[in-house]
Design a protein that fits this description.
- The complex is a heterodimer of chains A (364) and B (341).
- By secondary structure, chain A is of the alpha/beta class.
- Chain A is built from 14 helices and 8 strands.
- In chain A, the strands form 2 sheets. A 6-stranded parallel beta sheet of chain A has the order 1-7-8-4-3-2, with helices on both faces.
- Chain B has 2 domains: 188 residues, Thiamin diphosphate (ThDP)-binding fold, Pyr/PP domains (Rossmann fold, 3-Layer(aba) Sandwich), CATH 3.40.50.970; 127 residues, Rossmann fold (3-Layer(aba) Sandwich).
- Chain B is α/β, with parallel strands linked by helices and 341 residues long.
- Classes of the chains: A alpha/beta (364), B alpha/beta (341).
- The interface between A and B is large, with 41 and 48 residues.
- Chain A: It is an enzyme of class 1 (oxidoreductase).
- Chain A: Keywords: Oxidoreductase, Pyruvate, Thiamine pyrophosphate.
- Chain A: InterPro entries: Alpha-ketoacid_DH_E1_comp, DH_E1, PdhA/BkdA, THDP-binding.
Chain lengths: 364, 341
């Protein structure tokens, strides 16, 4: 038998579980300023996360998906993208969104049941959070096609979970990205769990990254809790995309340290011992250890950072809670650019009802 | 400028008048808009080199290049979603689904994203795109190639659902759909793709959306229809006229959002309404129209509203498709029934 093609999937890891370099670090590690900014951001996101869960538990926010265990990947994505690139997210990309320019208040509004939470004052071209699994992958290749059609030097980063890679949307999109040579980086955030379905029964392939090969794309695995591995891989893939070399798939392996959402109870299906082991690989602590060991971080700085993050988050929460809901008529005002005549009656009735029942204007 | 030169300019301005079929009018509208708006791109299966299985996109790749006329891989969900990504970038994609029977793979993208993008971003992003699909029976096509499921889309807030019934309206409504800043599902009645020709001025003039078209004025009964069934409805109107029954024929054209005003005004005049559509009856757009008339014009009615529709069953294969489709006689009988009351 003759071997026609040979494929391989690489993986990288630079820091061990305790933040000790396993060998030479990539060039990105020389930028201390950036590494410190990454760590500060991860702590901010973790502070925001625990506060939002607390808000949900006290009835001040809706169902919310914790970002715990995903901070490193999102931070690397947010830091690596050019401002003119476009982020096409799933729903656990808090760390990337905030770096792109979404405010904590906007993030709270979205999960707090207010459409204004996706109207974003900054990063106007980034796609909003996608809740239906993997559907965003198709948008990503559409955005990338627009760049290609117009001949623009821009790239797309599309995030998706491990469960999402089972869907046609992901497979069809990487297939198109390969066929059309599109400037996209697919970041698969493999946190081992799709709600209660473990990675082991999500797919029979040894790795998710190898799905890229079937689409004619390079697939690469990184330790999703190793800031340097993730950063290097995303920067390299973005460089390829910008350089006209096409799309890539990165499988960033991590662990969902929280429940799927605040409506979930992972103790129903997950072993406590497994979770404990996953905490030992925590990427935020790992980067803190690295900075500490290399003499760039100390307990006082940590204390100050924690206090600063709490203050930043509290301010955002106050702003969020102080915002009045939109008038009910807003539910019709953004359906079309101009409300069709056929819907004027319904909007008027909605406004009248609201006025009569609340003694308020109703936004009409 | 001498007289003949002036005449040439005037002619160009008025647009070359061509005698075309409905599918040729679709092609003309696409070509006009691609010529005049560089943001317009078309994508779909077999649409570029082959010009589409019905030839709706023939010649576009040669004129506008493969960057704007794109053969996609065979994945309808991908086509629906890719168009959304393009639209958020300010392009105006016109995506073709080869047959309506294959559009369902794209339903999640259409319903959960295209229809909602403007609303969920409070206008930050929007989807100025058109999803084209040939639909309906009567052409001896294989299984899955003959259904009329327009009601599925009419039920979705945020979508416009537009159905032309003649070459002129195909041209004008498709131009309007492409220029519309919101998503439009544009369903083309393939049974009449080549049934008739009409003179269409290729002048880039769009026709208004969200409005019914009154094709024939009359006093005794309002006949309401859309798509290919307009053909039989007009033929029935001719036959009824011979019997001395005066019918008003309305082409709904945009089935969502629905121009109730025109329908109600007509029923106020005639006091009778017969609704004709090829789709199943249960939960069809005819039901929405009947309910709207009953709600707002009950006292104008001199007879119950009658629907002439397909049956609530799976579209039969082609040996029996004629037994499923509404015919001229069915419409005539329905009108005779309401006139007798």
């Amino acid at each position: 038998m003759k071997e026609l093609h040979e494929f391989h999937v690489d993986s990288t890891r630079y820091l061990d579980d305790h933040g000790k370099p396993l060998g030479d670090l990539p060039t990105q590690a020389r930028d201390l300023h950036r590494t410190l900014a990454a760590y500060r951001h991860m702590v901010l996101i973790r502070t925001f996360d625990s506060k939002t869960i607390a808000l949900q538990r006290t009835g001040k926010c809706g169902t919310y998906p914790s970002v715990l265990g995903h901070e490193v990947i999102g931070t690397a994505v947010g830091q690596s993208m050019a401002k003119t690139d476009v982020l096409v997210p799933y729903y656990r990309d808090q760390a990337a969104h905030i770096l792109r320019g979404v405010s904590l208040k906007e993030m709270l509004l979205y999960w707090g049941g207010d459409e204004r939470g996706s109207s974003w004052e900054n990063c106007r071209e980034d796609l909003p959070i996608a809740v239906p699994i993997a559907t965003q992958c198709c948008h990503a290749v559409g955005v990338a096609s627009a760049f290609r059609i117009r001949g623009e030097d821009r790239a797309v980063v599309c995030c998706v979970g491990d469960g999402g890679t089972s869907k046609g949307d992901f497979l069809e999109s990487i297939n198109l990205a390969g066929a059309w040579h599109l400037p996209v980086v697919f970041v698969v955030i493999n946190n081992q769990w799709a709600i209660s379905t473990p990675r082991s029964i999500q797919c029979g392939a040894e790795t998710i990254a190898q799905k890229a090969i079937g689409a004619g794309l390079p697939g690469h695995i990184v330790d999703g809790n190793d800031y340097f591995s993730v950063t290097e891989a995303i920067e390299y893939a973005l460089e390829r995309a910008h350089g006209g070399k096409g799309a890539s798939v990165i499988e960033a392996v991590t662990y969902r340290l929280g429940d799927h959402t605040t409506a979930d109870d992972a103790t129903r299906y997950r072993d406590a011992e497994e979770l404990k082991k996953a905490w030992e690989k925590d990427g935020v602590k790992r980067l803190q250890n690295y900075l500490h060991d290399s003499g760039h971080w100390d307990a006082d700085q940590e204390k100050q950072l924690q206090a600063d993050c709490r203050e930043t988050v509290e301010t955002a929460v106050e702003e969020y809670l102080a915002m009045e809901p939109e008038p009910p008529t807003a539910m019709m005002d953004y359906l079309f650019e101009t409300l069709p005549a056929a819907l004027h009656d319904q909007r008027d009735r909605l406004a009248d009802k609201h006025r009569a029942r609340s003694g308020q204007g109703g936004g009409a | 400028m001498n007289a003949s030169a002036q005449k040439a300019v005037d002619k160009q301005k008025a647009g070359e008048v061509k005698e075309v079929t409905l599918v040729e009018a679709v092609n003309m509208a696409l070509a006009w808009e691609m010529e005049h708006d560089e943001h317009v791109v078309v994508l779909g299966e077999d649409i570029a080199t082959n010009g589409g299985v019905f030839r709706a996109t023939v010649g576009l790749k040669e004129r506008f290049g493969f960057k704007r006329v794109m053969d996609t891989p065979l994945a309808e969900n991908l086509i629906a979603g890719t168009a959304i990504g393009m639209a958020t970038q300010g392009l105006r994609p016109v995506a073709e689904f080869q047959f309506m029977g294959f559009i369902y793979a794209g339903m999640e993208q259409i319903v959960s994203h295209a229809a909602r993008m403007r609303n969920r971003t409070r206008g930050r992003l929007h989807c100025p795109l058109v999803y084209r699909a040939p639909f309906g029976g009567g052409i001896h096509a294989p299984e899955h190639h003959s259904e009329s499921t327009e009601a599925l889309f009419a039920h979705v807030p945020g979508l416009r659902v537009v159905i032309p019934s003649s070459p002129q309206r195909a041209y004008g409504l498709l131009l309007a759909a492409i220029r519309n800043p919101d998503p439009v599902v544009f369903l083309e009645p393939k049974r009449i793709y080549r049934a008739v020709t009409q003179s269409v001025a290729d002048n880039g003039e769009a026709l208004p959306l969200d409005t019914c078209y009154t094709l024939r004025e009359g006093d005794d009964v309002t006949l309401i229809s859309w798509g290919a069934s307009i053909l039989e409805t007009l033929q029935a109107a001719d036959k009824l006229a011979e019997q001395g029954i005066s019918t008003e024929v309305i082409d709904v054209a945009t089935i969502s959002p629905l121009d109730r005003e025109t329908l109600l005004c007509s029923v106020a005049k005639t006091g009778r309404a017969v609704i004709v559509h090829e789709a199943c009856r249960n939960g069809g757009v005819g039901a929405e129209i009947a309910a709207s008339i009953a709600e707002a014009a009950f006292l104008d009615l001199q007879a119950p509203i009658v629907r002439v529709t397909g049956y609530d069953t799976i579209m039969p294969y082609y040996r029996n498709e004629q037994a499923y489709l509404p015919h001229v006689e069915d419409i005539v009988e329905a009108v005779e029934q309401v006139i007798a009351l």
